[in-house]
Amino acid sequence: MIIAIDGPAASGKSTTARGVAHRLGIMYLNTGAMYRALTLGIMESGIDVDNINAVRCFISGTVVEFDNNNQILLNGENVSAKVQSSSISDKVSAVSAVPEIRKAMVQVQRKIAGEKDCVLEGRDIGTVVFPRADFKFFLVADVAIRAARRMKDLQALGESCSLDELIKVILKRDKLDSTRTNSPLVQADDAISIDTTHLTIDETIEKIISKIIKLKNEEKS
Question: Who's near 56: CB < 8 A, 6+ residues apart?
């Protein structure tokens, strides 16, 4: 069983997907963390993402995976905390838009999720990675709410940024993600849209679980 949860930045995808996976007792695959880990590696290596040959060499010598605690590893190093920084957020859209990078990550994602029941979240899970996913959801939220959520995450990391600045950053990210040529952010035709603006994480998780149970019951009847 594959459950795809897509949506724009800070719409609640990661926390919701993690909670849904926990409730169902299946694996959670944070695809966003994979792109963030590659972004970190590229930044630390001083690689220009427009230099395709350099990017290809980097990918061929890089391993992105998850450990038994579902922590993201970059060449064996746990980088779960590092990849949440604002510097990574500023660069990840450009890095994830590179076709060679997306192709490599999609292969890894399909390999991992193809072996077990899994909840995946990202921006193209239901349209590109697993277009035949059993269940598809697309989370949205007001940009001010998303910015406030992102601010809370950054504060937990000891970083500070104004709400207005974060709104600008998120809107810019939305535009980059939705207009990129390769695997743009778009809601799949058969995805269920959920507005999380006024929902808690628990309420969002419950709404998704309820939808899955309802759809499963309809399939049986």
Answer: 100
